[in-house]
């Protein structure tokens, strides 16, 4: 675990590293590997941090960003790789070791103690002492007040942290990181819960730190922020190191193609997926959602789906895809918006009501939100309809058996028998069991959030064929997928979200890989988009200041995105 | 090292601050930005923090009017002395609960401490005190190590500890048939029976221990770490606080204090009574929670626990004063009050979440 990989002191610069003369790297990671169970989260990742730089760390779900950060800060022990800090080989066994060495981290979810005061949180573990060795509360509060004042944060340092808004809490976390005078500050999506003014404050602090020679790592799904703040960028994908280089040399489309492992020119012909093609569908939308707003997540999202139609919902991580379907399903409190199914308005925030109206949601995280591993296939399928299968409170077994048999055959669920425990099935069959469960409720609208993620290729194709079949039976399907092929080939129409807004709506001949890529990058606001169907205006992106030419994307690794992104789940787990 | 961290990081979504702190999510609740407290919540919070104190004062006032024998020096002193045995144990339990744990073994450990003290008193004062402390401290230490290093649930580990300590006690007393007596005239008897300025030594000891406890909780980094662990264990871990060490110390001290409580009761009753302490863990937990400590950990006060322990003892005493009431009513009343306190706590926790 503490084995040190000693490597001759060769040239330290990693791929694409700029190395200004005189600035020795502060952190060098080479070939870092880490797996959880059988899943490789990191497969040889390099990262070099220079003093006085802000380094963007970019990648989609499961790329390995969070794992890399946690390996770097002693939360996880790496399986292999070389780690140098200030030139010396290191392995941090615990977060405390990394912190003592001067690496502090601000996590995406605020990792402070809500019930303690702001000042206590800032100085936890390093409280100022009195002569007798006790905590000098007076001095602690004074220093904390000074510190947050200097950062331009207006909070009462003696108040409970949990009383503050999330943004303010995030700023307190920043104050804590600043107060330890770290040499490396890692910020894992610090801006996701901040208001614009707070983001400015945070950027100001980050730039001050850079000036004082601190190396900063900045993770954000708001791509604009990367160009505003960062000097260099490292892109990860599926646990691999993909690209490192100056931020200014990248445009948005190239960055996104690095992240997705696709570039517009390279994408091949049809036929990667099992999707048969376009679906015949009705004219009147069965699902009609408009003006959906969720605080700091979604604004004015609209979505219409007709019976028999598959509408793809595309977008990068953090663009609000899952939030959109959750909001429709009533599983997320919305600020405003209207959802109607077959002409009837749904009550906002009521899952029961949505279910009754015929909406079903296959959630992204089947382990946490769906499958009950120790129950049988039969019981898992029947779970959602138990109330309907009962007469006077007594479950009629024969009716359930008949129903389960039907779906086992129809969805080709491979299980020894209906009594087999679901945990013993493959990922693909587990997914089909879940789909069967929802089909039992006889939905008219089926929201599928990453239905093919984390299942093997064969099962993936079966699920894809099943989606086609469901649409063929007149079901209105919303398909969220991170894989461009699925959207392009499986959907009749793709609504692309960017930063919580509808960025573009592509259908017909517009529905191509290159157009999708441009839209995913948030750059579709060019004149060519004027002739869009439906009423959705492609939102212009707010000030990335990058040319939208989309030209010359440097070659990705050429690995098909159809590669199973199993690592995604692991990484999310790790995030806690 | 990374194993348990990972699991914990993934395991507790409901403690996720992003959800817990609520301000981020819109809805019927508070405005974005900082969370403002409604009047109802403020009253509930006051009731949770100071409710036991108010109840204690009201109960004492009423009792002194209704029962002439209540407010006498002898009665009050007896309340204080009798409360002290349980309160000593509750002090340790406060830290355990504040740190997000629970210790069900204290009743058995307490009884074991009493028997060991009575047995060892034949060798003099020092062994009578040190033997129970050593054995009970050791039990606490082992439990702490299993919980902190092994990552096992405190509930189960200390339930095993409860059985273990009770079994050990029965073994050394020949299935409870041997009752060790403290030799007459032993200095050890002074520990709980002696007085200074009209107040029993055990009460003085209690005051000193609680003062130290309050100092430790609010003015040392150990105390803050306990609160941090109870409030958000993942965060404590990620901030590099000594989580394992702190937990082990907490259970160790809790074992020591349970042993000390046992020694005090042995001194008070001049013997090692084997049937003591059955169900005491629940009474101790009640005292802690009544005193305003969150059962889920992370917030509470030492003084509150003292008030909670006194309140339970006063309820007992008052019900004894009412001749017609069976002493079992004490449990009914305490139970009702406890339920009220816990309801308020969970109401508050939910309001925080929004």
From TrEMBL, chain A:
Any one of the GO CC terms: plasma membrane
A Pfam match: ABC_tran
Organism this protein belongs to: Haloactinopolyspora alba
Protein name per Swiss-Prot or TrEMBL: Ribose transport system ATP-binding protein
Organismal lineage: Bacteria, Bacillati, Actinomycetota, Actinomycetes, Jiangellales
InterPro entries cross-referenced by the UniProt entry: AAA+_ATPase (IPR003593), ABC_carbohydrate_import_ATPase (IPR050107), ABC_transporter-like_ATP-bd (IPR003439), ABC_transporter-like_CS (IPR017871), P-loop_NTPase (IPR027417)
Top-level division of the source organism's lineage: Bacteria
Principal place of residence: membrane
PROSITE patterns: ABC_TRANSPORTER_1, ABC_TRANSPORTER_2
Molecular function GO terms recorded: ATP binding; ATP hydrolysis activity
Automatic annotation (TrEMBL), chain B:
Principal location listed in the UniProt entry: membrane
InterPro entries referenced in this protein's UniProt entry, alphabetically: ABC_transp_permease
GO cellular component: plasma membrane
Organism superkingdom: Bacteria
Keyword tags: Cell membrane, Membrane, Transmembrane, Transmembrane helix
Membrane-spanning intervals of the chain: 51-70, 129-148, 155-173, 196-217, 248-268, 288-315, 327-348
UniProt-annotated stretches for the region Disordered: 1-31
Gene Ontology molecular function: transmembrane transporter activity
Protein's membrane topology: Multi-pass membrane protein
Compartmental location: Cell membrane
PANTHER family xref list: ABC TRANSPORTER PERMEASE PROTEIN YPHD-RELATED-RELATED (PTHR32196), INNER MEMBRANE ABC TRANSPORTER PERMEASE PROTEIN YJFF (PTHR32196:SF63)
Protein name in the entry: Monosaccharide ABC transporter membrane protein (CUT2 family)
Organism: Haloactinopolyspora alba
Taxonomic lineage: Bacteria, Bacillati, Actinomycetota, Actinomycetes, Jiangellales
């Amino acid at each position: 675990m503490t084995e040190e990989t000693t490597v001759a002191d060769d040239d330290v610069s990693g791929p694409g590293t700029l190395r200004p003369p005189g600035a020795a790297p502060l952190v060098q990671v080479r070939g870092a590997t880490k797996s959880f169970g059988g899943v490789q989260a990191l497969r040889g990742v390099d990262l070099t941090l220079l003093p006085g730089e802000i380094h963007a760390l970019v990648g989609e779900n499961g790329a390995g960003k969070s794992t890399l950060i946690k390996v770097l800060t002693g939360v996880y022990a790496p399986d292999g790789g070389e780690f140098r800090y200030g030139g010396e080989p290191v392995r941090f066994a615990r977060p405390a070791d990394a912190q003592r060495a001067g690496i502090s981290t601000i996590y995406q979810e605020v990792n402070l103690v809500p019930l303690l005061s702001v000042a206590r949180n800032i100085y936890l573990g390093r409280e100022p002492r009195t002569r007798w060795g006790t905590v000098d509360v007076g001095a602690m509060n004074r220093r904390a007040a000074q510190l947050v004042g200097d950062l331009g944060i207006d909070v009462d340092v003696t108040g409970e942290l949990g009383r503050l808004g999330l943004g303010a809490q995030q700023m307190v976390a920043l104050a804590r990181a600043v107060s330890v005078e770290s040499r490396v500050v890692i910020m894992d999506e610090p801006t996701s819960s901040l208001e614009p003014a707070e983001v400015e404050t945070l950027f100001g602090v980050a730039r001050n730190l850079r000036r004082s020679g601190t190396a900063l790592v900045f993770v954000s799904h708001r791509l604009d922020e990367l160009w505003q703040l960062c000097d260099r960028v490292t892109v990860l994908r599926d646990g691999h190191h993909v690209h490192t280089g100056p931020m200014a040399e990248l445009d948005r489309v190239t960055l996104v193609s690095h992240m997705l492992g696709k570039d517009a020119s390279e994408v091949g012909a049809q036929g990667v997926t099992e999707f048969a093609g376009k679906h015949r569908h009705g004219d009147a939308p069965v699902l009609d959602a408009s003006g959906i707003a969720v605080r700091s997540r979604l604004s004015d999202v609209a979505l219409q789906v007709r019976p028999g139609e598959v509408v793809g919902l595309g977008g990068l991580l953090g663009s609000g895809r899952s939030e959109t379907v959750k909001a429709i399903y009533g599983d997320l409190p919305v600020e405003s918006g209207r959802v109607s199914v077959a002409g009837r308005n749904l009550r906002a925030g009521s899952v029961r009501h949505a279910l009754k109206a015929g909406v079903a949601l296959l959630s992204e995280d089947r382990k946490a939100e769906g499958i009950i591993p120790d129950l049988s296939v039969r019981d898992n399928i029947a779970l959602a309809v138990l109330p309907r299968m009962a007469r006077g409170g007594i479950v009629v077994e024969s009716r359930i058996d008949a129903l389960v048999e039907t779906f086992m055959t129809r969805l080709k669920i491979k299980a020894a028998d209906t009594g087999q425990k679901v945990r013993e099935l493959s990922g693909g069959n587990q997914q089909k069991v879940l789909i069967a469960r929802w089909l039992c409720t006889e939905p008219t609208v089926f929201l599928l959030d990453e239905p093919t993620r984390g299942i093997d290729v064969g099962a993936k194709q079966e699920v894809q064929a099943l989606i086609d079949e469901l649409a063929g039976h007149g079901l209105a399907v919303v398909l969220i997928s991170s894989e461009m092929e699925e959207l392009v080939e499986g959907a009749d129409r793709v609504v692309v979200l960017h930063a919580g807004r509808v960025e573009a709506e592509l259908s017909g001949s517009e529905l191509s890989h290159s157009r999708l890529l441009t839209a995913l990058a948030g750059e579709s606001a060019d004149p060519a988009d004027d002739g869009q169907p439906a009423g959705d205006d492609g939102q212009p992106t707010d000030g990335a200041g990058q040319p939208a030419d989309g030209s010359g994307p440097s070659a990705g690794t050429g690995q098909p995105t159809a590669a199973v992104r199993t690592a995604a789940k692991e990484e999310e787990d790790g995030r806690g | 090292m990374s194993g348990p961290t990972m699991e914990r990081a993934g395991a507790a979504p409901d403690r996720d601050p992003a959800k817990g702190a609520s301000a981020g999510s819109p809805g019927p609740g508070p405005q974005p930005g900082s969370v403002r407290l409604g009047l109802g919540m403020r009253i509930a919070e006051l009731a949770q923090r100071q409710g036991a104190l108010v109840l204690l004062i009201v109960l004492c006032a009423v009792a002194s009017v209704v029962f002439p024998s209540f407010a006498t020096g002898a009665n009050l002193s007896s309340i204080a002395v009798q409360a002290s045995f349980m309160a000593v144990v509750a002090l340790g339990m406060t830290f355990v609960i504040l740190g997000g744990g629970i210790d069900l073994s204290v009743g058995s450990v307490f009884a074991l401490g009493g028997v060991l003290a009575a047995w060892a008193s034949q060798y003099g004062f020092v062994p009578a005190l040190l033997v129970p402390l050593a054995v009970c401290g050791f039990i606490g230490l082992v439990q702490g190590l299993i919980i902190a290093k092994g990552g096992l649930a405190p509930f189960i580990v200390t339930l095993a500890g409860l059985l273990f300590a009770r079994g050990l006690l029965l073994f050394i007393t020949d299935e409870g048939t041997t009752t060790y007596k403290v030799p007459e005239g032993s200095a050890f008897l002074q520990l709980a029976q002696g007085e200074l300025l009209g107040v029993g030594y055990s009460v003085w000891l209690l005051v000193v221990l609680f003062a130290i406890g309050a100092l430790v909780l609010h003015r040392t980094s150990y105390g803050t770490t306990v609160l941090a662990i109870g409030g958000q264990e993942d965060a404590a871990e990620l901030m590099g606080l000594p989580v394992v060490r702190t937990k082990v110390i907490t259970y160790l001290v809790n074992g020591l204090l349970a042993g000390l409580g046992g020694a005090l009761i042995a001194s008070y009753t001049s013997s090692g009574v084997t049937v003591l302490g059955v169900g005491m863990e629940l009474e101790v937990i009640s005292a802690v929670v009544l005193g305003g400590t969150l059962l889920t950990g992370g917030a509470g006060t030492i003084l509150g626990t003292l008030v909670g322990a006194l309140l339970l003892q006063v309820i007992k005493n008052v019900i004894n004063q009412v001749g017609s009431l069976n002493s079992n009513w004490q449990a009914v009343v305490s139970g009702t009050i406890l339920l009220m306190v816990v309801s308020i706590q969970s109401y508050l926790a939910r309001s925080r979440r929004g």
